[in-house]
């Protein structure tokens, strides 16, 4: 046992992270009578929602707020919460369940307490507020920890302001001039709209994230997605279960291009183009003051438009049919009369007056503190239903932990319940 471990405080279970996954786990651990403490590196509760921009609205409707012990019971189940409302709701949840949280505590190392020689012997956990010995550790630090920025960003001219979407708050942060947004996931699409609403000139690099209708067959899109997540296997429809993924890489595929702003709506690339956004292909790199993109813009837009109908729509329709649900026929999507001009394969930053680049290029998992060989080639813990191959080490709240919605407020509580039950049974 190390010198630091000898002086450490002892506890049954440490939960790393006090966002939705950590709080849901705390709920079930308390009900099982398990002594535990949540360690949160941020100075205040509210999780990664505190890292969103000022105009952000939750993309899932209020009815999908299904944390154990607290669900949305307000007058607008089909509406969407703004960022500050989401943060306050999580703080209220922590108060309601009396979660034992220590904020401002960053975990720097988690290792086997005995160096890994004895199964189930516990863990040495080093933090900015002292060290611990824990019988169990739950990794609940989420999927939005390490912003991804391509290495070639370092080659951009120094006068160009660069931000990841993680740090973007509002257009006033940026210098005057045009803005390039790289990536058309939900963040890229919504930030582009935020900039447009502020009257900024916007360039947008298109990735492969699919467009989708905000509402489908009489319900919000997330209603059907949640139904298939939770009940699809009952009818032989397993497309949103982790076991059905074709590749481990699919755990990180982007979500449909929709928004909770303005009452909820879908984001369509052609509509952004019609409103004045200059669309470009996939970001490839920098070249002497210019940025290069893939020369396939028209095909790329067509791909994003067709993806929903090719896979997701078929799955949702099959579920509705198999479950015997009476639902109206699919709504027709009116075409947008706009075509890209040119290939959008090169952007001269100086000539086009671009002064800022926002990297909406997603996040990577961050388990840099984990000194235990339990991660796969994708930096994802090897596990079954959140129970890793190392006795006493668990994971909750990761994308596709057990299903597509595992990291959302609608389904994280289910995985947390299983993990807490397994942990208590030890």
Structural key phrases:
426 residues; alpha/beta; FAD/NAD(P)-binding domain; 2 domains; seven-stranded mixed beta sheet; five-stranded parallel beta sheet; 8 helices; globular; disordered N terminus
In short:
With 426 residues, the chain is of the alpha/beta class. The protein has 8 helices and 25 strands.
Please describe the topology of this protein.
Blueprint: H1 3-6, E1 9-16, H2 20-31, E2 36-39, E3 66-67, E4 70-71, H3 83-96, E5 101-102, E6 107-112, E7 123-127, E8 130-139, E9 146-147, E10 161-164, E11 178-182, H4 186-197, E12 202-205, E13 215-216, E14 219-220, H5 221-231, E15 258-259, E16 265-266, H6 269-274, E17 278-280, E18 283-287, E19 290-293, H7 297-322, E20 346-348, E21 354-359, E22 363-364, E23 383-384, E24 387-388, E25 393-395, H8 412-425
Parallel strand pairs: 1-2, 1-8, 2-5, 8-25, 10-21, 11-12, 11-21, 12-17
Antiparallel strand pairs: 3-4, 6-7, 7-8, 9-22, 13-14, 15-16, 18-19, 19-20, 23-24
Structure description:
The chain is α/β, with parallel strands linked by helices and 426 residues long. It folds into two domains: 3-145 and 365-425, FAD/NAD(P)-binding domain; 147-363, FAD/NAD(P)-binding domain, CATH 3.50.50.60. The protein is built from eight helices and 25 strands. The chain has helices at residues 3-6, 20-31, 83-96, 186-197, 221-231, 269-274, 297-322, 412-425; strands at residues 9-16, 36-39, 66-67, 70-71, 101-102, 107-112, 123-127, 130-139, 146-147, 161-164, 178-182, 202-205, 215-216, 219-220, 258-259, 265-266, 278-280, 283-287, 290-293, 346-348, 354-359, 363-364, 383-384, 387-388, 393-395. The strands form eight sheets. Strands 1, 2, 5, 6, 7, 8 and 25 form a seven-stranded mixed sheet that branches. A five-stranded parallel sheet has the order 10-21-11-12-17. α2 crosses α8 (412-425). Residues 1-5 have low confidence and may be disordered.
């Amino acid at each position: 046992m190390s010198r630091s471990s000898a002086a450490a405080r002892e506890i049954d279970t440490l939960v790393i992270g006090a966002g939705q996954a950590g709080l849901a786990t705390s709920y079930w651990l308390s009900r099982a009578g398990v002594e535990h403490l949540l360690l949160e590196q941020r100075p205040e509760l509210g999780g990664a929602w505190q890292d969103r921009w000022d105009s952000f609205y939750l993309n899932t409707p209020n009815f999908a707020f299904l944390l154990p012990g607290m669900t949305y019971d307000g007058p607008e189940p089909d509406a969407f919460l703004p960022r500050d409302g989401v943060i306050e709701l999580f703080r209220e949840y922590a108060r309601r369940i009396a979660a034992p949280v220590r904020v401002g505590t960053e975990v720097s190392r988690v290792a086997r307490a005995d160096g890994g020689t004895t199964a189930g012997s516990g863990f040495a956990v080093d933090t900015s507020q002292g060290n611990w010995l824990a019988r169990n550790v739950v990794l609940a630090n989420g999927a939005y920890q390490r912003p991804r920025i391509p290495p070639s960003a370092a080659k951009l001219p120094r006068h160009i302001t660069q931000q990841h979407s993680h740090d973007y708050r509002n257009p006033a942060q940026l210098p005057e001039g045009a803005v390039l947004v790289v990536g058309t996931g939900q963040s890229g699409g919504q930030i582009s709209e935020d900039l447009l609403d502020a009257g900024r000139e916007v360039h947008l690099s298109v990735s492969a994230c699919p467009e989708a209708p905000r509402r489908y067959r009489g319900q919000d899109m997330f209603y059907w997605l949640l139904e298939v997540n939770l009940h699809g296997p009952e009818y032989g429809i397993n497309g949103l279960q982790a076991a059905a993924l074709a590749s481990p890489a699919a755990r990180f595929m982007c979500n449909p291009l929709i928004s909770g702003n303005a009452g909820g709506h879908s984001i369509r690339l052609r509509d952004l183009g019609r409103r004045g956004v200059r669309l470009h292909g996939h970001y490839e790199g920098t070249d002497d003051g210019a940025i290069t993109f893939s020369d396939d813009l028209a095909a790329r837009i067509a791909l994003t438009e067709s993806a929903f109908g090719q896979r997701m729509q078929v799955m949702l329709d099959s579920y509705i049919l198999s479950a015997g649900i009476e639902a109206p026929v699919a709504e027709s999507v009116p075409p947008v009369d706009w075509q890209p001009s040119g290939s959008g394969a090169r952007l001269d930053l100086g000539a086009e007056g671009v002064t800022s680049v926002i990297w909406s290029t997603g996040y990577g998992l961050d388990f840099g503190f984990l000194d235990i060989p339990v991660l796969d080639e994708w930096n994802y813990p090897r596990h079954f239903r959140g129970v890793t191959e190392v006795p006493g080490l668990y994971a909750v709240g990761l994308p596709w932990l057990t299903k597509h919605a595992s990291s959302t407020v609608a389904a994280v509580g289910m995985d947390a319940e299983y993990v807490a039950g397994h942990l208590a049974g030890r």
